[in-house]
Amino acid sequence: MSRYRSHTCGQLRPEHVGASVKLAGWVNRKRDHGNLLFIDLRDHYGITQCVAESGSEAFRQMEGLRSEFVVSVTGKVVARTAETANPNLPTGGIEVRVESIEVLGEAQDLPMPVFGEQEYPEDIRLKYRFLDLRRERLHNNIVLRSKVISSIRRRMIDQGFMEFQTPILTASSPEGARDFLVPSRMHPGKFYALPQAPQQFKQLIMVSGFDRYFQIAPCFRDEDARKDRSPGEFYQLDLEMSFVEQDDVFAAVEPVIHGVFQEFANGRDCGPQQFPRIPYREAMLKYGVDKPDLRNPIVLADVTEAFRGSDFGVFARAIDNGAVVRAIPGPGAAAKPRSFFDKLNDWARGEGAGGLGYVILDKGEAKGPIAKFLNPERLALIKQATGAKDGDAVFFACDKEAAAAKLAGQARIKIGDELDICEKNVFKFCWIVDFPMFEYNEDDKKVDFSHNPFSMPQGGLEALNTMDPLEIKAYQYDIVCNGVELSSGAIRNHKPEIMYRAFEIAGYGPEVVEGKFGGMLNAFKFGAPPHGGIAPGIDRIVMLIADEPNIREVILFPMNQQAQDLMMQAPSEVTPKQLRELSIRVIADDKK
């Protein structure tokens, strides 16, 4: 028998009745019933009820215990009566009659309770994360995370992928978010960067002759927090494959992602293993966003022509100046009171729009503030485009294409929630494909990469030389689940001449390409295979499976929204000696 325990707190069952056992764990809860004293002893594996009778030495010892004391309990397993058994607890058929207790670690007064699931301010939870992690929901989330990663790793290896580790200290590159920079002591004035992703390295692995690579990769980006994005660092299933086209990547990834969701779905529907594919432009038209939540049955429609030259001057004039009109059907909304529509209008104004125009279809008539401006022919066009019928309402967003899509996409989500028409207990996956290779950067007034600069343009070098850059599509793709982007990937540009030309269109000369990507570019000149990959986010996968609204609930030690680790007090100042060793001088911020 171990010095501390013979069994875990989740192990004992009625078949152990009569056995002498030793348990170790935390005092989850103490209950005084006068002549009987109970403690619920908790460890990683579960909870066991322990009891002592008044007058015993064990009773005296238990009186001095408080919540979260760490103790070792010696006693005998006894059966609980039918009246006192707890069917909701795996160990609920037994209890341990305590003979002696050893205190292994005392606990001060708690800044937050561990027992129960009360809500506490995030700053308290993060500062005392070690206490928060003892709580059942969060503890189970982290256990789930471990199981999900193990499942993913097993599925990847079963498909012939090999796991390699890529460098953490690397060079800065002009892509994506800001880098985290690390000063070099041996090379004053020069800096390493923590990798935003192992992008170049995994491509170099393919050039090095390996065929299928993966790793559960840490990635570092100096960007702001969101509910589905942790600031500072995150983990992704990074993978790359040689001699593949887009379909080959999809065929390798779908069984892994679908399989791991199905394994931990707990009765929720995961849909078919083969995910539907939605071109980017179609997604923006139908859903107003490139990460659509397909649980929502609402599909947007273009109804610009129904308003072009109409008596509704606000829309008609905007259309003449290049605006479009997107329609958002509201199934069954005709039965809603006026306050429902007023609330949506107020919401739209809060989003910076002028409002959300609408018509109500009722008994063959159109009602609402816009209805009088629509003759039967125009109304028929709207019904045909949206599929709306009597009993429905149709809402409208009018603006330049991108702004109209954004408002309509947000309204689709809002209306779907307000009408409570979205599917529940289901995971809806899709691929978004055919992303534009380039986009126009309004801030810098130049053409820029829209997605991943290392992607192969559809049509190759000929497309880059002959087409309008904004019309060129790339072999780029995303996996989306329930409105959350799980991953981005691409078939890579493995030909130097195509890479030079693509970066030239984005305003980067050969010297930039060679300076920033010289290692990979040089490797391509010595025989590079066609290759492609993707990188699903581990944190987001676990967040969805755990049905948590915030990604911090599935990360062991997350930072807060200001990228601070309140528990370890990072970031922190360093000593003058450390700064001198790095040839760094800190300049005071006059704005503070």
Question: Major β-sheet, in short?
Answer: 8 strands, mixed
Kindly report the average pLDDT value. 94
Share in helix: 25-40%
Note the total helix count. 17
Structural class: alpha+beta
Report strand %: 15-25%
Q: What is the CA–CA distance across the termini?
A: 60 Å
Q: Write down the overall geometry.
A: globular
Number of strands: 22
Spatial extent as radius of gyration = 30 Å
Which strands sit side by side, in order, in the main sheet? Answer: 6-9-10-22-21-20-17-11
Instruction: Show unreliable segments.
Output: none
Question: Summarize this, please?
Answer:
The protein has 592 residues and is an alpha+beta fold.
Please characterize this protein's 3D structure:
This protein is an alpha+beta fold and 592 residues long. The protein is built from 17 helices and 22 strands. It has helices at residues 57-63, 122-127, 129-132, 136-158, 199-207, 246-263, 280-287, 304-307, 313-320, 338-350, 376-386, 401-419, 460-466, 496-505, 510-524, 538-545, 576-581, and strands at residues 20-32, 36-43, 46-53, 70-79, 94-105, 162-163, 180-183, 191-194, 212-221, 232-242, 277-279, 301-302, 324-330, 357-362, 365-367, 393-399, 429-433, 438-441, 446-449, 476-481, 484-491, 531-534. The strands form 5 sheets. An 8-stranded mixed sheet has the order 6-9-10-22-21-20-17-11, with helices on both faces. A 5-stranded mixed beta barrel has the order 1-2-3-5-4. The chain has a 5-stranded antiparallel sheet with strand order 12-13-16-14-15. Helix 4 packs across helix 16, helix 5 (199-207) packs parallel to helix 15 and helix 7 (280-287) packs across helix 12 (401-419). The longest helix is centred in the N-terminal third of the chain and has 23 residues, at 136-158. The mean pLDDT is 94.
